[in-house]
Design a protein that fits this description.
Aspartate Aminotransferase, domain 2, Aspartate Aminotransferase, domain 1, 10 helices, alpha/beta, seven-stranded mixed sheet, three-stranded antiparallel sheet, 12 strands
């Protein structure tokens, strides 16, 4: 039986000791710098999906008791990463599902939302649409990052409906410093706070009590750093919240059905269940529960994964800085220290799309957003693979 690996240095060598657990995704044969977007699934994820098939075939409609058990395990997996009780969590297929339910429950007598200009498209598009319906949207600049918190706090007042921010910005890879101060300001003015932690969970420090977020909402998911695949998003609901979301599924009263139906009464469950949806495909939860189990078996704690990620980020940064690249072609933000980074490196270039395509043609998988080329390492990659990818990037930049 394989023993858990606890020394981060073990993951730097070639082949990476995790490689053998990801044979289907061929992580040892490919340079997958997509760890910030879509990490490979361990082979055992298939076991979870096959179990979902087996339970459906064997139990038919009675499969739901088994499926709900998998959902419970997924909530517990996230709860461990957030350092928060599992009953505070509700699951959904996407963060957009959860954002819509959240927005349907806020107090719209105040029609003023404070956010940043660097929120992921899930929030950006939905909030922009609300502007067309007369909602005032205050977009605080997220750059330069050292002043983002100050700018946000300056816009929060009693007329604010809600504050929506990211723990790590998707277009810079930088962590938002000062979240506890933002939370305190929201609390002082009686304003709900929603934090998007998708780019933080399992790769950067994100602890509910430590960040003073015990009365905040948090959304995130496992498509990226948890390796859970699609359909595994969550929202953390503060204890004691009695909001009544307008967009509501019948699962929000599921626990109450056994007490008798009241067709003219809209009842809600407690905790995260208050924001629950309705019937869903449970295969994603089977897969996620098995992957969470794999992480525990291998000793892949959030602390260990952060250590590995920081080492990999340092390697990428040092290699890029060593290129002495033409700043008119490509640059990185040198104002942020290593600890301020999340789990991926952003290089800015007006030719980001072209560089991305050339990298892909050479076997290096990355992605880009506008002028931001994003390089996302993952714990199953060796240092040798990262050096190989950066050698290819160096040669492409020289050719351009």
């Amino acid at each position: 039986m394989d023993h858990p690996l606890t020394d981060p240095r073990q993951f730097y060598r070639s082949p990476n000791p995790l490689e053998k657990y990801y044979q289907a995704f061929r992580v040892g044969e490919r340079l997958l710098l997509t760890g910030h977007s879509h990490q490979a699934w361990p082979d055992c994820a298939r076991e979870g999906m096959e179990r979902a098939w087996h339970d459906a075939a064997e139990a038919v409609d009675e499969k739901w008791e088994r499926a709900f058990e998998q959902a419970r395990l997924v909530r517990e997996g996230y709860a461990c990463l957030l350092n928060d009780p599992a009953e505070n969590l509700v699951l959904a297929a996407s963060t957009h599902d959860l954002l819509v339910r959240f927005l349907s429950a806020v107090d719209w007598r105040r029609r003023r939302i404070v956010t940043t200009d660097s929120e992921f498209h899930t929030a950006r598009r939905q909030l922009n649409r609300l502007v067309e319906e007369g909602v005032a949207l205050i977009r605080v600049e997220a750059n330069p990052p050292e002043h983002t918190t100050e700018r946000l706090i300056g816009e929060i007042n009693e007329q604010t409906t809600v504050v929506i921010i990211s723990a790590v910005f998707f277009n810079s890879g930088l962590r938002l410093e000062g979240i506890p101060d933002i939370a305190a300001t929201c609390r002082r003015h009686g304003v709900p706070l929603l934090v998007d932690a998708y780019h933080a969970v399992n790769v950067a420090p994100f602890d509910i009590p430590a960040l003073d977020l015990t009365d905040a909402f948090v959304v995130g998911g496992g498509y990226k750093y948890c390796q859970l695949g699609e359909g595994n998003c969550f929202m953390r609901v503060p204890p004691g919240v009695v909001w009544r979301p307008v967009i509501t599924g019948w699962f929000a009263e599921f626990d109450l059905l056994s007490k008798g139906r009241h067709w003219d009464t809209i009842a809600y469950g407690v905790g995260g269940a208050r924001f629950a949806g309705s019937t869903y495909d449970p295969v994603s939860h089977y897969r996620a529960a098995r992957v969470f189990s794999f992480f525990r078996e291998r000793g892949l704690t959030k602390e260990l994964l952060r250590s590995i990620s920081q080492h990999q980020m340092q390697l990428l940064i040092e290699r890029f800085d060593g290129f002495d690249a033409d700043p008119s072609l490509i640059v990185r933000d040198t104002s942020a220290g290593l600890a301020q980074h999340g789990g991926f490196l952003v290089l800015r270039s007006v030719r980001a799309a072209e560089i991305h395509e050339r990298l892909r043609a050479a076997g290096v998988h990355t992605d880009y957003r506008d002028q931001a080329l994003r390089l996302g390492p993952a714990p199953y990659l060796s240092d040798q693979q990262l050096h190989e990818a950066m050698d290819i990037l160096r040669d492409i930049l020289a050719a351009i």
